[in-house]
Amino acid sequence: MEPKAFLLDEPMAGMGPEGSKALTGFLDGLRREAPILLVEHDMDAVFALADRVSVLVYGRIIATGSVSEIRNDPEVRRAYLGEPA
Question: Which of helix, strand or coil describes residue 60?
Fold first, then answer.
């Protein structure tokens, strides 16, 4: 079908660790076919698949960057881990 992009909203929702890992592997191969826009709360999957990550809090983007930048962003850490910024 020659897709131009894949849009996925919470594909790991309700999956256990094994299912999530299997789907992450499938999506890793799929991204060679076309770009993927992935909305996901499974951060292991996000960090395994993403080239760029945007983090939202109440619908507002608080950070955008590489996996490393997001992991180390003080506002992201404060919002999701309860750490001081």
Answer: strand
